[in-house]
Design brief:
Layout (H helix, E strand, L loop, with lengths): L15 E5 L4 H12 L3 E6 L2 H13 L4 E6 L7 H12 L4 E4 L7 H6 L1 H29 L3 E5 L12 H21 L5 E7 L1 E2 L14 E2 L1 H11 L6 E4 L3 H10 L2 H4 L5
Parallel strand pairs: 1-2, 1-4, 2-3, 4-5, 5-6, 6-9, 7-8
Helix pairs in contact: 1-2, 1-7, 3-5, 5-6
The chain binds NADP nicotinamide-adenine-dinucleotide phosphate (NAP).
NADP nicotinamide-adenine-dinucleotide phosphate (NAP) binds next to helix 1 and strand 7.
């Protein structure tokens, strides 16, 4: 007589995936891992030539489909466009929102139009796309929304509080979506990277133990697509660092040039 079954069923890897900002270095690293699982991936972004190249590469790496979808996220109608994407895939297992811009803090403080562009890109449009994705997941009662925020959103600092404010607002929004979706069986996760070597940070002196490569962030994103959240730091050590940063008394914090 055999005993109780010991079989462990692995969570099913997502197959129908939409990536908003597929030309981002971090998103591309994650897409390679999903491609190796044979996923079908819509690659949305505004640089058509780069999307074509990335799609070809993902197919070579095992993606069942890699569909380039040229789009500017700020001007697009999020609900209508996402509806077309979901129809094309026949449903949505996972959406990764990866796009964003940083800007120079001093320039953004002097130029309200430039600050408004960062806010429109990183917060207003990202919120619209997140809400559109949440509506799809709510209807399906399954699937995952992953949004890339930043540790910069955890506390306003003089060196980047405009960018940080957009990421902080986005984190609140995604946490709220996660709270709403949880009882329905769907998920939302805000991923908070620290310093990552990508085109976005190319102008910074990027070395030292706090810096990570996109290939180190990608597995954390892929894991977040299957379990955990609603807040995931990437790499994980940033959770401890930001706990300290958030709780420093103003008298100490104000003396730090960060
Ligand atoms: N690198 C870091 O240290 C770091 C740290 C924390 C969080 N993050 C976040 O990680 C995410 C990915 O950034 P990354 O580091 O991988 O930098 P990246 O390679 O420069 O990627 C940013 C992407 O956003 C796209 N984008 C910006 N505005 C857009 C718009 N209106 N429509 C369509 N696409 C748009 C860019 O497209 P184009 O190529 O067409 O410009 C680019 O592909 C961002 O949300 C960023 O804020 C990065």
């Amino acid at each position: 007589m055999s005993g109780p079954s010991q079989e462990v069923v692995a969570p099913k890897a997502p197959q129908r995936i939409v990536i908003l900002g597929a030309t981002s270095a971090i998103a591309e690293a994650a897409a390679r891992l999903w491609a190796a699982n044979g996923a079908r991936i819509i690659l949305a972004g505004r640089n058509e030539a780069r999307l074509n190249k990335i799609a070809a590469d993902l197919k070579a790496r095992g993606a069942s489909e890699a569909i380039d979808w040229p789009l500017d996220f700020v001007t697009a109608d999020a609900g209508a466009e996402l509806g077309k994407m979901v129809d094309r895939l026949g449903g949505l297992d996972l959406l990764l929102l990866a796009y964003g811009i940083s800007g120079d803090q001093g320039e953004l403080e002097r130029n309200p139009a430039a600050a408004a562009k960062v806010i429109a890109t990183n917060f207003s449009s990202a919120a619209a796309w997140s809400l559109a994705a949440a509506a799809v997941l709510e209807k399906q009662r399954r699937g995952t929304l992953l949004v890339i925020g930043s540790v910069a959103g955890d506390r306003g600092r003089r060196s980047n509080f405009i960018y940080g404010a957009t990421k902080g607002g986005l984190a609140h929004l995604v946490e709220g979506i996660a709270h709403k979706l949880a009882p329905l069986g769907a998920r939302a996760v805000i991923i908070k990277p620290g310093f990552v070597e990508t085109p976005m940070t190319a102008g910074m002196a990027n070395n030292g133990p706090l810096w990570a490569k996109p290939d180190a962030i990608a597995p954390i994103i892929v894991r977040a697509g299957e379990k955990g959240g609603p807040v995931v730091y990437a790499p994980t050590f940033w959770r401890g660092i930001m706990l300290i940063v958030r709780n420093l008394p103003a008298a100490v914090f104000d003396r730090l040039n960060i």
